[in-house]
What we know:
single chain; 183 residues; alpha+beta; Multidrug-efflux Transporter 1 Regulator Bmrr, Chain A; 9-stranded antiparallel β-sheet; 19% helix; 42% strand
Amino acid sequence: MTETPKYSVIKKDKNIELRRYQSYIKAEVTLSEKSYRKAVFKGFNILANYIFGNNIKSENIEMTAPVAVSQSEKIAMTKPVTVSGDENYTVAFIMPSEYTLKSLPEPKDPSIRLNSIESHTMAVTEYSGYFREGKIKKAKSELTEWLEKEGIEIQGDFIVAGYNPPWVPGFLARNEVLVRVKA
Length: 183
């Protein structure tokens, strides 16, 4: 079975969960792309190349789930506040739990960063289908609305997480939208 990050559920309300995640390490790459789909495919290929042996040790690293994508937009601080349109996406793989930052092989690709993520709390909603921007926006909106209603503060960018390979039919695909929240 494919390893996923370990967490405990703090609260559940229909399709939304508050989760406390244990610490983990992720390999990530940041790209300038026009859409989630393009960023996912390009970032996935770069990171897959790393875990399939294109690293200093030529070591294969076990595939885990999910593939996570977050988007940050550069915002000009003017009145009115406007979005510049420059979109950066960060695509990440969670590394198997047996690794530490010291034991992971160094990437040959300098665009790949290895980061240790401390335990944290996330608000999560699940949806099926592919990484389609309409579904993602709807899930973000529902999650934001719920967090506002609950009085829970968001800390950081939304993350879209896909758990299945691309050949899994959309109606069976498990995806999540997550955002870090103040504990």
